[in-house]
Write a structure and sequence with these properties.
The structure holds 3 protein chains of 3 kinds. By secondary structure, chain A is of the alpha/beta class. Chain A is 22% helix and 24% strand. Chain A has a single domain, classed as NADH:ubiquinone oxidoreductase Nqo5 subunit (Beta Polymerase, domain 2). Chain A has helices at residues 2-5, 27-34, 58-67, 132-142, 174-181; strands spanning 39-45, 48-53, 75-83, 87-95, 103-110, 121-123, 146-148. In chain A, the strands form 2 sheets. Chain A has a 5-stranded mixed β-sheet. A two-stranded parallel sheet of chain A has the order 6-7. Chain A starts with a helix and ends in a 6-residue tail after the last helix. Chain B has helices at residues 15-58, 62-102, 118-128, 139-155, 158-164, 179-187, 190-200, 204-235, 240-246, 261-264, 270-297, 309-312, 322-346, 356-381, 385-389, 394-418, 426-454. Chain B has 2 domains: 15-113, no CATH class; 134-454, no CATH class. Chain B is globular. Chain B contains 17 helices and no strands. By secondary structure, chain B is mostly helical. Chain B starts with 14 loop residues before the first helix and ends with a helix. By secondary structure, chain C is of the alpha+beta class. Chain C has a single domain (64-368), classed as Orthogonal Bundle (Cytochrome-c3 Hydrogenase, chain B). Chain C is built from 16 helices and 8 strands. In chain C, strand 4 (166-167) and strand 5 (170-171) form a beta hairpin. Classes of the chains: A alpha/beta, B mainly alpha, C alpha+beta. Chains in contact: A-C, B-C. The interface between A and C is large, with 40 and 47 residues.
Chain lengths: 187, 455, 406
């Protein structure tokens, strides 16, 4: 497969994120606002309200939404780390066991704010949901986001001595580096 | 938008399939049983009759007589030695085919005609496999363990030979006055081999398996022995031949139905009849208890905790390979055979037919056939005529047929249980052993002892 | 290895603990799970699951392969319920693409998905009994029925396990002639078969002893760990996406979601799956009756009148009678956008989070695998149980290791 053969797949541009005009604050945004958490509304991801919040507010926001009797977002359905070219995103899909509410929270860390050789820091949600435990480990393993306050932050899917974070856009496979030195390599 | 029809028929295993497979299974069993017992028969005849006779014929003096007697004395050992490996092969094949039958499959049917030689091929494979002693294992103990596990099953079974051959002259000397005690004592040795092997393999799974096995053997030995002791009380003897003999004369004389309590009951007295009824009921319970304890003793499902495949990866024999593993395997099936034989001898009337008339008819038929052969064929062979006559002892032959039928029925029953039940958990197993079986066996022991006097 | 012994009670009689490594090569870990167990005698005091032995970088592959190529790969994510992984991906892509899937295709999807649910549960039933030690006997009965369904899968998709049948925009192909009749015959006899299993298993005293009150999963714990599927329905929470957030044609079908009120022990999880199989069977029956356009034999007959024109406005070929709404070739593209789509797989909520940038490859894939989330609750269930219960509990949460590791 020719796509594989390239040592570094050319990253395609991310979908347009920021709209020129700020969007109106939504239902969940209002709840967050009432609890003193600022949020920036993003375009809905297929009909589900999506907001971006600050890393420092994350734990508070999650706790608020979980304990809120109106929305009861008590299921952390999915947690995805995304390398979005300019930013590292941590995306939280919140669902509920009791109703059909859905909500998406994103924490964006611009790559410019991350020091060389360091990982972006995002607060861990393990104190609020144990479900976050393995998802955060996976996100750390594959995308390289450091979840501060996680009890057991180590690789989960890759071997424990793996180097690099495979789902980063600038990830280079170890085997590619080996083959670069070999003039007869077909890769 | 193309559509095609399904050409392949979806197979429907139905009752016909099952019957067909059952027929094949019975044919396989009969073939193998003929091979096994034919081999044992010929081997023991050679060693016990033909060779001594030939030696005494061609060598003169006391020496020849002595050698002949030594050979005769070796007959039981030789027959056991011939019997155990072939029998284990058959039992493994029988188990696999029977389980396949229970679960709508076909089982091994490729090696040899219709899979008859599958286990023989397996045995050859095991012999040629590399014999690995794991790193850190105690090599001496590791090698000794399978032998200690296996040896008692050879020597322990000897007194039973006298009973199952209806006290045939060649076998009667292996009978002991305390025969059944010797068998029980021998059958409790293998657990030492298990613990030894599991400790020596330097493997944690094996260790857990071995300790479980020790705990289980200790717990289930007690109800097993108590149920046998109860039978001994009923019979008033420890001699297996005598116990077997007492059960002759029909179904109701078997120990499983009260050992003659029903036939000997005094019809005039209500107490006697009631006592006889209760006693026969207790004996049925006793028999079931013996079967349960025996299942646990030989590590069969649902009591196969020491080797629990899905938990402990075969427990004590995890690290064994090649010939050592084969010996473990052999010993397991031999032990199953021996507990079934003990059950047959102690409970199921040994060589006695369910109806006395059957025995008479069968012995009569065989005797008249022999007489016919003696008259028509023996004459042609002249002096060797008596040798042919010595091939078959009618009483032993008929008794052995019944024993074979009963023992293998019990074996098939054990396989059926294996095909049905899941496994106990270790604490539940202990609870069941100590809180249910042991009290029950003690109660039955006392009850049957008293009831026997009342009948 | 960090083993936390701080929370243990210590008294003078405490024996030394043994660390035992269960797996990855262990007959009952359903693949390659590794459990680092700390045992006190036979009782588990600490457990650490180590996963990732089957990691095949499914997400990375999704980002480096075109949509069309990746469709064929995702059956491998969960090899026992490949229809559901395909369906989750298709739903995500269709949501972004605002693609209308023809109703006939949706019916076909429901039929094959429910068939797949039955095969998955049947395999679980067989292997679970092996976990409990019923080694060679009963476990083969479920395989008898599973075999029939696999034959049907082979007839419709060409493969017995890796179907690649549900595609973005519809399904791969029409059912062959005779397929519906065979399936109908199966649905007629299947309830009797379930009765047969129940007769052997449900009232078996040893089975009850091994499963009742073992591995209790409390509601609060389950919600905390994000457990879904039969596991959480056995704990008394009614959450089945087919009813909870209805998709496809499920609103048109009559079925019940089995919820077992009670302890949430392994027995409840067993009962939940058994009842789910009955419900799936009912769903298939209804779909066979209701499917838009009728059985393929009838439809082919009707299409003779228009000579299978395939035009959009044709009453026999177009609209909801089609089975595919998008062209399936290497140029398959999905609009820019992001979506999270979930389906109810046999193991729980199978979610697919996709970010697309409008090219032929996705920008980011993230699978939300039910096994992954359900397995993370394992250590809560195991501590305090004897070693023999490990497999009884682990088997009851029905984890597929490729689904965990991707």
């Amino acid at each position: 497969m020719t796509d594989e053969a390239k040592p570094q797949p050319t990253p395609s541009p991310a979908p347009a994120k920021a709209e020129p005009t700020p969007l109106e604050i939504g239902r969940y945004g209002k709840i967050l606002q009432a609890n003193g958490i600022a949020s920036k509304r993003l375009p809905d991801s297929c009909g589900v309200e999506t907001v971006e919040i600050d890393a420092k507010d994350l734990q508070k926001a999650a706790k608020t939404l979980r304990d809120n009797q109106e929305v009861k977002l008590n299921l952390l359905n999915c947690l995805a780390g995304v390398d979005n070219l300019e930013t590292f995103d941590s995306v939280y899909h919140l669902w509920s066991y009791e109703n059909t509410n859905e909500f998406v929270m994103k924490v964006s860390i611009p790559k410019t704010q991350v020091a060389e050789g360091k990982l972006p820091d995002v607060p861990s949600l393990v104190p609020i949901w144990n479900a976050a435990n393995w998802h955060e480990r996976e996100s750390y393993d594959l995308v390289g986001i450091n979840y501060v306050g996680h009890p057991y932050m180590r690789r989960i899917l890759n071997p424990w001595d793996w180097e690099g974070h495979p789902l980063r856009r600038d990830y280079k496979q170890p085997v590619d580096a080996l083959n670069d030195k070999n003039p007869h390599s077909m890769r | 938008m193309t559509s095609s029809t399904i050409t392949r028929e979806i197979p429907k295993p139905g009752i016909n399939f099952q019957l067909y497979e059952l027929g094949k299974f019975i044919r396989l069993s009969l073939t193998w049983l003929t091979i096994i017992f034919g081999a044992v028969w010929i081997a023991s005849w050679l060693v016990g009759v033909l060779l001594p006779a030939a030696i005494e014929q061609f060598m003169q003096g006391d020496n020849a007589h002595f050698i002949g007697n030594v050979l005769r004395a070796l007959t039981p050992i030789v027959s056991v030695m011939v019997f155990i490996p072939i029998n284990a092969m058959f039992m493994v094949l029988c188990e696999r085919r029977a389980l396949a039958l229970f679960t709508v499959r076909k089982g091994p049917n490729r090696v040899g005609p219709d899979g008859y030689l599958q286990t023989a091929a397996d045995a050859v494979k095991l012999l040629f496999k590399e014999d690995i002693t794991p790193h850190g294992a105690d090599a001496i103990m590791f090698t000794l363990a399978p032998i200690i596990f296996f040896a008692p099953s050879i020597f322990g079974a000897l007194p039973l030979l006298a009973a199952v051959t209806a006290d045939h002259p060649l076998y009667s000397f292996v009978n002991l006055p305390t025969g059944i005690f010797y068998v029980l004592a021998m059958s409790s040795i293998p657990v030492v081999g298990l613990v030894m092997g599991s400790w020596a393999s330097n493997n944690k799974y094996s260790l857990v398996g071995g300790l479980r096995s020790a705990a289980q053997a200790v717990s289930y030995e007690i109800p097993l022995v108590l149920s046998i002791i109860t039978v001994c009380f009923m019979a008033g003897s420890l001699d297996v031949v005598q116990i077997a003999r007492q059960q002759a004369g029909g179904l109701l004389n078997w120990n499983v139905f009260g050992g003659g309590a029903l036939t000997h009951a005094n019809l005039g007295s209500i107490t006697s009849i009631v006592a006889a009824l209760i006693m026969s009921l207790s004996c049925v319970i006793l028999f079931c208890m013996y079967l349960i304890a025996a299942c646990a003793e030989v590590n069969r499902i649902p009591f196969d905790l020491p080797e629990a495949e899905s938990e402990l990866v075969s427990g004590y024999n995890t690290e064994y390979s090649g010939i050592k593993f084969a010996i473990f395997f052999l010993a397991e099936f031999t032990n199953l055979f021996i507990v079934s034989t003990v059950a047959t001898v102690m409970f199921l009337g040994c060589g006695a037919a369910p109806l006395p008339i059957l025995d008479e008819v069968m012995v009569g038929t065989v005797t008249s056939l022999l007489a016919w052969a003696q008259n028509n064929l023996g004459a042609n062979f002249g002096q060797l005529g008596w040798l042919i006559n010595s091939l078959i002892n009618p009483t032993t032959f008929v008794a052995a047929l019944w024993v074979i039928l009963k023992v293998y029925s019990l074996v098939v029953f054990a396989i059926l249980v294996r095909g049905t039940l899941p496994r106990f958990r270790i604490d539940q197993l202990m609870d069941f052993g100590w809180k249910r079986l042991i009290p029950l066996s003690l109660i039955l022991l006392i009850a049957i002892t008293f009831l026997k006097e009342l009948v | 290895m960090a083993i936390d012994t701080a929370g243990l009670t210590s008294d003078d009689l405490k024996t030394e603990e043994m660390v035992i490594n269960m797996g990855p090569q262990h007959p009952a870990t359903h693949g390659v799970l590794r459990l680092l167990l700390t045992l006190d005698g036979e009782y588990v005091t600490h457990v650490e699951p180590v996963i990732g032995h089957l990691h095949r970088a499914q997400e990375w592959q999704g980002q480096n392969r075109t949509w069309f190529q990746y469709q064929a790969l995702i059956d491998r994510v969960d090899y026992l319920s490949g229809m559901f992984t395909s369906w989750a991906l298709s739903r995500a892509a269709e949501t972004i693409d605002e693609c209308h899937v023809p109703e006939r295709a949706e019916y076909m999807r429901v039929i094959v998905a429910e068939m797949n649910r039955i095969t998955s549960h049947l395999l679980w039933l067989g292997t679970y009994l092996i976990d409990l030690g019923a080694m060679f006997g009963f476990p083969f009965y479920p395989f008898r029925e599973r075999e029939k369904l696999l034959d049907l899968f082979e007839a419709i998709a060409g493969q017995r396990m890796m179907f690649n049948y549900i595609r973005i925009g519809g399904v791969q192909r029409e059912a062959p002639f005779g397929w519906f009749a065979k399936l109908k015959a199966f649905t007629e006899e299947f309830p009797d078969r379930i009765d047969e299993y129940e007769a052997i298993v449900t009232q078996n005293p040893i089975f009850l002893k091994r499963t009742k009150g073992v591995g209790i999963l409390k509601k609060s714990v389950a919600m905390d760990y994000g457990v879904t599927g039969p596991c959480i329905r056995a704990s008394g929470i009614n959450m089945d996406l087919r009813r909870f957030k209805p998709y496809s044609v499920y609103p048109k079908l009559k079925f019940e979601v089995p919820v077992i009120e009670g302890d949430g022990d392994t027995w409840a999880r067993y009962m939940c799956r058994i009842q789910e199989m009955r419900q799936s069977n009912e769903i298939i029956k209804q779909c066979l009756d209701q499917i838009t356009g009728g059985w393929p034999e009838e439809l082919a007959e009707r299409r003779k009148s228009c000579n299978s024109c395939g035009k959009e406005d044709c009453a026999n070929c177009g609209g909801d009678l089609k089975i595919m709404a998008k062209k399936q070739n290497a140029g398959l593209r999905v609009k820019a956008g992001e979506a999270f789509a979930a389906v109810e797989s046999p193991r729980g909520t199978l979610g697919c989070y996709v970010i697309s940038n409008g090219s032929d490859k996705a920008f980011r894939f993230k699978w939300r695998n039910p096994s992954f989330c359900n397995l993370s609750v394992l250590h809560e269930l195991l501590v305090g149980h004897p070693i023999a219960d490990i497999m009884a509990i682990f088997g009851s949460i029905d984890v597929i290791l490729p689904d965990v590791d991707r």
